[in-house]
Amino acid sequence: MIELRPPCRCAHSSPHLFSSPGLCLQPLRLPGHPRSLAGHRGGKRKSFSFSCHCHLVGERFNWHAGPHPLCLVERIANQPLLPNRSRLDCNAKQWRLFADILNDVAMFLEIMAPIYPIFFTMTVCTSNLAKCIVSVAGGATRAALTMHQARRNNMADVSAKDSSQETLVNLAGLLVSLLMLPLVSACPSFSLGCFFFLTALHIYANYRAVRALVLETLNEGRLRLVLKHFLQRGDVLGPTSANQMEPLWTGFWPSLSLSLGVPLHCLISSVFELQQLVEGHQEPYLLRWDKSQRQVQVVLSQMAGPETILRAATHGLVLEALQGNGPLPRELEELRNQVQAGPEKDSWVIVRETHQVLDELFPKFLKGLQDAGWKTEKHQLEVDEWRATWLLSPEKKIL
User: What is the pLDDT of residues 265-305, one digit of tens each?
Assistant: First the structure.
């Protein structure tokens, strides 16, 4: 009846191995490397090896690199410096701004390092670590934004022009710095003041540039804004208006925890709970709502496409609206009164009733998105790789 299909399978299972959704680890013996690992995600194998010794001292674990520095470098090169790399695509504008600010912080630390010789090593190491994060976040978001700007599928041309402009700006900056250096070298306070002024100007210019971006694909932040406007006023915001309203500083901490593509065992622990989630709809996703934790978890079917994922995210944000304020359509207003009146109804009952409301509401919302200029055939929602297959009851339509 139920079949779980994680994105990859490991042929050699062992209780000593670590695994996660989409990541299987199995032993790989290499000459001269006493301990090594090989991991593959999504079916594509990536090898990395390391040698280390673990010593337990009190309640702390101290890890020391073994006699293979190249292996340690290889391990660092194959490990992400930022958690959850898919968010770089989903929130490209926020991460672009974050990378610019962090780069300025790294340069400030480099300037301050000689002033405090006692903390010189720590300051320089922190600066280099920040620059590594800037390299990952900046490079990833630049690629995402270049794809957006390549309107004629001319990504190579856009990248070449971007590199040429950057080279020209760097050359101009070098010439200006050579002219200003004799003027500010004799006065450290004036030099520091110039740095703060130019840093503030740099952050403001990058903020205005990121704010000017108009992305036609929906991520969670833009979808929340568009859906809220649709529920309150009945029409759909266009990409230009929604991008102008999208939060750039607070977009990392949404009020609702929306998880798409979670494994089935996160939602249910018995067949009875599965029947509760399946009954009352024929959509290829299962949704669980935790009202107290403000958390929505969604299991996706193998047949779930971009439109289904968009509906599942809309469903979760509609449940969030039931716990908020503001005008809602009549059907949702009745459900909100029931939710705010008390815990008389179980959350799965509310989820089932919102399925029925969305059967009428979502087609109108989807058509409004398409008419307003949004690209609904793809999205920038954060979706994990877990999929599940379940059977509906015999009287239901088989998908």
Answer: 888 888 888 888 888 788 899 998 888 788 899 999 988 89
d(CA 335, CA 248): 32
Pick from 110, 104, 120: nearest CA to 203:
104
- How many CB atoms sit inside 10 A of residue 261's CB? 22
Q: Do 50 and 36 form a contact (C-beta atoms < 8 A)?
A: yes
Tens digit of each residue's pLDDT (9 = 90 or more) over 182-205:
888 888 888 888 889 999 999 999
Do 144 and 88 contact (CB within 8 A), yes or no?
A: yes
333: tokens are 């207003």
CA distances for 192 relative to 107, 116, 169, 260, 294, angstroms: 12, 15, 22, 47, 46
- Taking the CB of residue 175, how many other CB atoms lie within 10 A of it? 10
Report DSSP letters for 79-115, one per residue: S-SSS-TTHHHHTHHHHHHHHHHHHHHHHHHHHHGGG
Identify the bridge partners of residue 286 per DSSP, sorted by sequence position: 299
